[in-house]
Amino acid sequence: KAIRSALVQTLAVAEVLVCDDGSTDASREVVRAIADRRVRWVEGSRGGRPAIPRNRGIHESRGEWLAFLDDDDEWLPEKLERQLGLAGSLGTLAVSSNAFRIIPGMPRGKALLDWQGERLTFADILDTNRVICSSVLIHRSLIADVAGFPESPRLIACEDYALWLRVASRTDFAYVAEPLLNYRDDPVNSVRKAGPDEKSLRRDVLDDFTRWAAQSGLQGECRRAAVRHYRAMRLAGWRESCRALVFRFTREHD
After folding, report:
1. Is 192 a member of any domain?
2. Which of 6, 51, 62, 209 could bridge across to 159 with cysteines, CB 3.0–4.6 Å?
3. Highest mean pLDDT among 18-27, 30-39, 236-245
């Protein structure tokens, strides 16, 4: 269903890369049986981290604009056309959208996000991830500039969020508030099920961003990120953890 939803877009796609992560089922045969030259299987060994096959796909792709689609999600037919049009009108290099939340065994739910603006800035996504990976359309030059998805094992449950912070430090996300995909939310199969708790996740994401930002010359952004994160953690009652984080971030990036 995911591949079919990409192939029937009103704005025709140039290629669909299916990136293997050491699958042991019949996925390879199913993909190769699709009678469409645009569909290509990208071989890969088991890495256990979503960032690895995603980065492999980025490297193998040829298009000027790249979009991501998890195998259990589906794009609505006008997704790419709507997003590319908005990116052009707003002059941004990245676009995301809302999605219908699909829970197995239940009818299609409501929109996943309640954001209504036409943009998502760095500040808008700092305290919570409002960017759905399968909704993203991004220019090749931008994803190359921010070095793709971080592959650290510590970020296995949030490597996409870590990338969106990098992207948002370079450009706003244009945002289509109307759902443009079906997002399957299956707690049983989620990589986050056995992942870190929220406190650890926030710490690891911000730590990755501040280190990357320092290497990229975004010293002021590092300080602002540390302060915002401190405030968020303080409101959540994580006083001791946030004090240690702010001390470390300001010491390392002064």
Report:
1. no
2. 51
3. 30-39
